[in-house]
Amino acid sequence: MAKEVRLFKSKERKTREEVVAFLHELADKISTGALVLSQGTEDLQLELPENLTLEVQVENEEKKRKGTEHSLEIELKWYDNDQSAKGLTLK
Q1: Which distant-in-sequence residues (6+ apart) come within 8 Å of 75 by Cβ?
Q2: Cα within 13 Å of Cα(60), Cβ side
Q3: Residues 67-76: contacts with CB within 8 Å, 24+ apart?
Q4: Predicted local distance difference test score (pLDDT) of residue 67
Q5: Where would I find the H helices in the chain?
């Protein structure tokens, strides 16, 4: 099994409006094919290919003290020199 290396991680509590603003900015950067993730003095520069794999997952997890935690995970994946694409649409 290949070793996974975490290059960057961020976890922040934000208002829904702040999340929307971040996602709009992220979408704009993805459309250009390049983005920089920054936190403190840490920067990670990404060059994105034309074709990406989009993975969307929704989970519920029971927490003993707080009740049900809901999560919506949006993940982009790609391989070097990958030219394939599949279709997912929002309704």
Answers
A1: 54, 55, 56, 57
A2: 3
A3: 76/30, 76/48, 76/52
A4: 96
A5: 16-32
- Residue 62 pairs with which residues in a beta bridge? 68
- Amino acid 59 reads E
Closest CA to 37 of 16, 2, 65, 8: 8
Give pTM, 2 decimals.
0.78
3-state SS assignment for residue 32 = helix
Average of pLDDT values for 54-77?
96
Cβ density class 67-86: b for 16+ within 10 Å, e for less:
eeeeeeeeeeeeeeeeeeee
φ and ψ of 17, to 5 deg = -60, -40
